[in-house]
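Re: weekly structure request thread

Next one in the queue (404 aa):
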Amino acid sequence: MANLSYEDRKAIEKYLFLNGYTPGGGSPSVLNELFTIQRDANGDIEKVISLYDFQVPPQSIEVGEAIKVSDLTQELGYTTNYDGRQYIVMNYEITDDGSINPTVKDFAEPSSFELQPLSDIQESFTNSVSFPLIAVQNVIGKTYNLKVATTSELTIKLYRLGTTNYVGESQTQELLLLSEDDLIAYDVKGEDTLIVSETIKPTQTNINGFDFDLKPLTDFVAGAAYRLELSVPGGNIEVKGTMVTPTFFFPYIKRQYGWQYVNRELAFKDDTPTTGGNANAEFYHYSFKSGQDKTDFFNDGLIKLSWDAPGNDLELYMLTEPNGTGDMVSLATKGDNTPVSTYITQANYKYDMYPSGVNATEGLIAWISAEDDEAYPSYKIYLHNAGSSYNSNVEVKKIIPKIV
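Done, posted below.
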């Protein structure tokens, strides 16, 4: 093969491999242990079928000449080669209660955000260190900044943890920077998944901050748990950050460039919201057993609602904070009982709409509004507990201002 070009040699080696031989002689390849080959009547290969699951790097599968498939934002996505545009495939979620209407991400303008803005303390770690964190916004992240310095190649890995419900036990819950010692975890689903793995040259690191891109773009889901791992082949990792608690150090982290988003559920034509006046209205209805928990039965990316059966509590979480100086406030009333006002100041923190609960045969009406953001939706919620052995029915009216 001395007179053949490099391309010709590789083509012949590929042909021999696909026919069960090792180029250059020796033992047969393991092809038949991994793949099945289908051929046409002429013996030409039509299809190669893998016998096992296999994994490929992000953005590495090309379909023809036009499209490259990827796990863009950890969902099925693709890039068009002719113009470099990136797309996320819209999908249905199948649950025990049937399918859920598709959602689309409604993106805001690019923005920056300091997840942890303090860098008053510098810590040194040998070989590796990991930090747990909770996303406080729905955001597609592209460029981030860490204050880290190393003398050898730095590997940055980010894992999204298997879906877990947490109960916080200390003040770290208020800051949404959660140490495993501060949590009780239950109802674990899925598995920890590596979503980012970046290698940074030591000359690029900087204890006063350096930028790096996430590849592929990463979808940080408000309330979801992640683990950030930093490692070097040998030596120390210098990190600036702050002490969240007397024993819990957390690094400085800033999103330099990314897009916050709100999930918008698509509606069928007969579900088209009312559009008159200066606002749009969306209506949602839910019915579930009063004696059983119903987690996240309403979630629009801004707030979510859950039902806690033991206490007959309607629980509210603020997922995305309103703009302006204020946060949110709710007013809940139950029959002749005293109305309850609740100031909602912490993202992804549980608030009971009516602390004494909504007991059998009782009803609750609640209003939820942003204090200082005229574009933020408001909500009116009706709940009727028909009985501990029967259903609770909830109607949610979401009013979306028209800003012109």
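Residues 6-18 form the longest helix (13 residues). Helices lie at 6-18, 31-34, 172-175.
Next request, please.
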